[in-house]
Amino acid sequence: MTLRIATRGSALALAQAGQVAEMLGGAELVEVSSDGEPGDKARFVRGVEQALLDGKAEIGVHSAKDLPAEIPEGLAIGAVPAREDPADAWIGAGNALDDVPEGARVGTASLRRRAQLLAARPDLDVQELHGNVDTRLRKLADGGLEAIVLAVAGLRRLGRADEISFAIAAESMTPAAGQGSLVLQIRDDDEKAALAVAKLGDETALRELTAERAVVSLLDATCSTPIGVRATAEKEGMTVDAFVGLPDGNEWIRDRVEGAAEEPAALGAALAQRLLATGARDLLDRAEKWSGRV
Fold it and tell me: How large is the average pLDDT for residues 61-72?
């Protein structure tokens, strides 16, 4: 039986699903619609999940950073392939964040990116920018902005890595949880799909994603919350870095934990507790008020 992969119809989603199909040795792509308003990031996964539940596809491909902490009953994460670079990319004037022109107009729809840009460079004029990758790059080319910030992984998967001026240093920009990773979702009773995707799984990527999702879940954060989490597993050890801040860049917390790579969920939980103990809940509650005015 030819496996069917449910995917959204955006250029990036199709590119990601196509890569998975190639890794599987061939599969049929089933395009689904995004159901929801522009600010509703859950729409990125809702249609794919419904296609799986309805039996229209056996595998769903998601950008891990879009996948909510709670997975619908009847579905499961089948595998996490090897991770692409999780960094954020600066496209525009400058070779590093320190030498970007003063007062540069920067486009992003992410409160996480806004918070960290302004924490590092309060002089920047961060402007709200929505749309897919091509739309954002076109708006930059039109001259209304000096720069935009996108994920390195998405640009590479689209064959647009040459657009990147520089990857923003990790100490200035902690990525979103799951950034650079794909999640292959299946029905939890589908043994054939489980066997097929298991061959694509990468243990290091799974451990990193597990730690990152633990932090986000315990902080009750969403994909629009100004929080960054980056786990790095090497050999038997793992470090997990996190950023929580206000979208205006005036207040933030950065923290890190280190531990055994074999216990990623526990390590993520430990970092979440440290963040809560140093005031992260208050920052996140206050950050929620920005949603309607940024």
Answer: 90
If one counts every other C-beta atom within 10 angstroms of the C-beta of residue 90, the result is: 24
Calpha distance 262→94 (Å, rounded): 40
Q: What is the mean pLDDT of the chain?
A: 92
Is 248 a residue of the active site? Answer: no
The SS3 of residue 204 is helix
Tokens of 132: 């897919």
Half-sphere exposure of 228 (CA within 13 A, CB side): 31
CA angle 248, 178, 189 (to 5 degrees): 140
Q: What does the alpha-carbon distance between residue 288 and residue 294 come to, in Å, rounded to a whole number?
A: 11
Instruction: Say if residue 230 is exposed, middle or buried (CB neighbours under 10 Å; 0-12, 13-18, 19+).
Output: buried
With tokens 């100004």, the residue in question is: 226
What's the one-letter identity of residue 247?
Answer: P
Which candidate, 205, 211, 206, 225, places its Cα nearest to that of 269? 211
CB atoms within 10 A of CB 202: 15
What is the per-residue pLDDT across 95-140, written as a single tens digit (0 to 9) for each? 999 999 999 999 998 999 999 999 999 999 999 998 888 889 888 8
Q: What's the confidence (pLDDT) of residue 14? A: 95
DSSP per-residue letters across 250-291: SSEEEEEEEEETT-HHHHHHHHHHHHHHTTHHHHHHHHHTTT
Question: How many alpha carbons fall within 13 Å on the CB side of residue 107?
Answer: 21
The encoded tokens of residue 207 equal: 């451990």
Q: How far apart are CA 180 and CA 286, in angstroms?
A: 28
Residue tagged active-site, from 35, 40, 54, 66: 66
